[in-house]
Design goal:
With 205 residues, the chain is an all-alpha fold. The chain is 72% helix and 0% strand. α1 crosses α2 (25-35). The chain is elongated. Mean pLDDT is 82; it is low at 70-74.
């Protein structure tokens, strides 16, 4: 059976999770599959804010789980951007080093250019709190002098060029294998119980 093409919500969820997990492609794939349907359209603004909120909260849980080694499974094609000397690379490194909520609000506001209400809903906080986190992020980036219009445009273009389909497809295949293995083990357990029951019944004949 041919793998399904990732849906628009899955692609959106993967891109956001990719940034919130420090470019961890495998973690982003798992979070995208947890939070977005494999089929269906992208929905309206409220649906997108709800999806972003699910991704943000899932990424927070992931970051506290002990599995959050930033960049441990980074897409190798992005290594030049992560470690290079370009303005986009410098901006990306500074952004990924931000505290969790400062990172979230910067990605949603500056990179994705979303409105205040959407960002507050996605972060599960008030608009006032989101603005405060954004001020902190901007202060750090301003001090390091890495946030310029050119660097932001270059970073946005580089991230848009990353295709999440291979990662999401691979994660979906791993999930299918696990389900098939569990189903097979369940079937074997049923057969074993049946044989044991038959043997026990035979003792009383």
């Amino acid at each position: 059976m041919a793998p399904l093409e990732p849906s628009a919500p899955q692609r959106r969820a993967w891109r956001l999770a990719y940034l919130l997990t420090g470019l961890n492609s495998e973690a982003a794939s798992r979070l995208a599959m947890q939070t977005a349907r494999p089929g269906g359209g992208g929905g309206g603004g409220a649906d997108l804010a709800r999806l972003d909120r699910q991704v943000v909260l899932a990424a927070r849980l992931w970051s506290r789980s002990g599995k959050a080694i930033r960049g441990a499974a980074a897409d190798q094609s992005h290594e030049p951007l992560r470690s290079g000397d370009s303005p986009a690379a410098s901006l990306l490194r500074a952004v990924l080093a931000l505290p969790r909520q400062a990172l979230e609000v910067w990605v949603l506001t500056r990179l994705d250019e979303l409105g205040e209400l959407h960002v507050a809903r996605a972060m599960d906080c008030s608009k006032t709190a989101a603005k405060a986190h954004l001020r902190r992020a901007e202060a750090v980036l301003s001090e390091s002098k890495v946030q310029t219009p050119g660097a932001l445009a270059e970073l946005r273009a580089a991230l848009d060029s990353v295709d999440p389909a291979p990662w999401i497809t691979a994660a979906a295949e791993r999930r299918r294998k696990v389900r098939r293995r569990k189903a097979a083990m369940g079937a074997l357990a049923v057969v074993a119980l049946g044989l044991a029951g038959a043997a026990l019944a035979g003792q009383f004949l």
